Amino acid sequence: MEEQPKKLHIFLIIWVGQFASILGSEMTTFAITIWAWQAKGQATPISLILLSNQIPRVIASSFAGVLVDRCNRKKLMMLGDTVAGVSTIAIMSLFLTHRLEIWHLYITAAINGLFGYFQGLAYSASMSMIVPKQHYIRATAMSEHITQFGSTILAPALAGTLYYKIGLGGILTIDLSTFLIAIATVWTVHIPQPERCEHREVSETLWQELTFGFRYIIKRPSLYAILLFLLILYFVDTVLYGIHSPLILARSNNNATTYATVQAAIGIGGVVGALVLSVWGGFKRRIHGFLLGTIFSYSSMMVFGLGNSTLIWIIAGFFAAFFWPFISSSSQAIWLSKVEPEVQGRVFAARYFISQIASPVGLAVSGPLADYVFSRAMQPGGSLASILGSWFGTSSGAGMAVQYTLFAFFGVLIGLAGYGFRKLRDVEIIVPDYS
Q1: In the 8-state DSSP scheme, what is residue 61?
Q2: What three-state secondary structure class fits 17?
Q3: Assign residue 253 a region: left if phi > 0, alpha if psi is -120 to 50, beta otherwise?
Q4: How far is it, in rounded angstroms, from Cα 319 to Cα 269?
């Protein structure tokens, strides 16, 4: 195996470039959303752009791990940013020549989704090669949560201000410059490659390589337990996500200012939580951050569902987002510690594929449950109105509030149940570190 210069400053250099790139991409997404709405005046094209980006990612997760484990991860990261930059140039050229159509955005979104997944997987699988083990939680909190929540706050504010001054072309120019920053930062650092077992690779069939990540996880019951935990948790979370915005708008009489304020509080909460983890480093036993983060985050969501005022939503939303980085950062730190670097691409891709199965299911049932079950049950004279009306009322959004609170309660129960399941609770004891 190559010598591993595990120094945090290498990660920090890469992180600065990736943060700039994601911020630029989010600004472009915001600007394109405005452009698409002005062009068509419909929500469907916008949702199709998002769908076009997500479908290739799920498909790629079935085979991307093999390529990430076989190919140079640094080059894959640079390839992802390069393709995104070329897509931006293509959109800019079409826009400046007045030939940009909605279907062009579907194609570029699909291409960016595919290569972006490879870039993200290569980045994630390289973490254990460049970050000292004691900094896994810090690095994950920064790369996933400060980046995510920070761009959630900054991108709409910057793009919303600049769009009407410099237009879509100007936003695309900024986006292109951020891709160049990302490529330059990756180019300047050394990212070690894990040693590959040539004998095993020659003896394995293509099917064995494609299914390696799944078989690896199943053979380790404690890692399998974490994956099942995440599968259930993501289902609950997407049911909540599906009615989050409608709940706020329905309970606030479609007040866009209230909605924006609550979303800003959620973004700030996520950034603060990630910063706390980055400075503190998290619990010595990471499973506590995983399970306690789940319990406290979903407890805050219960308060969010029970509340019916902007102040309560702001406070509850802040703390729900504050504790969310504890869940995923602690989980990722465990996986980075337990899975050998040379197979992390395949294992992490399998983990992503399985965990994402729950997301479309949760989104599919969220709306119908709200519209046809809980909203009807909480109308005056409904089956639940006499029981829960004193808590939630019977006005618009009451049914969604009941659904939101109920599924948030399920999330709390899942976190508590984790402490009663030894294979999950003691994963750090049962599964040895790879080194």
Answers
A1: T
A2: helix
A3: left
A4: 6
- Which of 320, 339, 176 lies closest to 236 in space, CA to CA? 320
Contact predicate 54/223, CB 8 Å: no
Could you tell me which of 301, 300, 281, 298 has the C-alpha nearest to residue 289?
281
HSE-CB for 34 with a 13 A CA cutoff: 16
- pLDDT tens for 206-229 read 677 778 888 988 899 899 899 999
Angstrom distance (rounded) from CA 306 to CA 323: 19
Placement of tokens 């508590």 in the chain: 416
Cβ atoms of 121 and 70 closer than 8 Å: no
Rounded CA separation 345/353 (Å): 12
Q: What percent of the chain has pLDDT over 90?
A: 18
- The C-alpha atoms of residue 200 and residue 205 are separated, in whole angstroms, by 10
At 245-296, the pLDDT tens digits run 778 878 888 776 777 678 778 888 988 998 888 888 888 898 999 999 999 9
321 neighbors 273 (Cβ within 8 angstroms): yes
| Secondary structure letter of residue 145 according to DSSP | I
> Half-sphere exposure of residue 127, counting CA atoms within 13 Å on the CB side?
31
Angle at 363 between CA 311 and CA 155, to 5 degrees: 55
Comparing CA positions, the residue from 147, 149, 370, 157 lying closest to residue 260 is: 157
Task: Please tell me the distance from the alpha carbon of residue 5 to that of residue 231, in angstroms, as a whole number.
Answer: 35
CB 427 within 8 A of CB 226: yes
How many Cβ atoms sit within 10 Å of the Cβ of residue 89? 14
Question: Could you tell me where the beta strands, DSSP code E, fall in 218-280?
Answer: none
Round the average pLDDT of the chain to a whole number and report it.
82
Helices (H), 339-434: 344-356, 358-368, 375-377, 385-392, 398-419, 422-425, 427-430
DSSP secondary structure letter of residue 378: T
d(CA 83, CA 121): 15
Look at residue 84 and give its three-state secondary structure: helix
Domains of the chain and any CATH numbers? 8-195 (1.20.1250.20), 210-430 (1.20.1250.20)
Rounded to whole angstroms, what are the CA distances from 90 to 49, 151, 278, 352, 369? 16, 24, 37, 30, 41
Residues 172-194 as b/e (b if ≥16 CB within 10 A, e otherwise) read: bebbbebbbbbbebbeebebbbb
Using an 8 Å Cβ cutoff, are 336 and 287 in contact?
Answer: no
Q: What are phi and psi of 190, to 5 degrees?
A: -100, 120
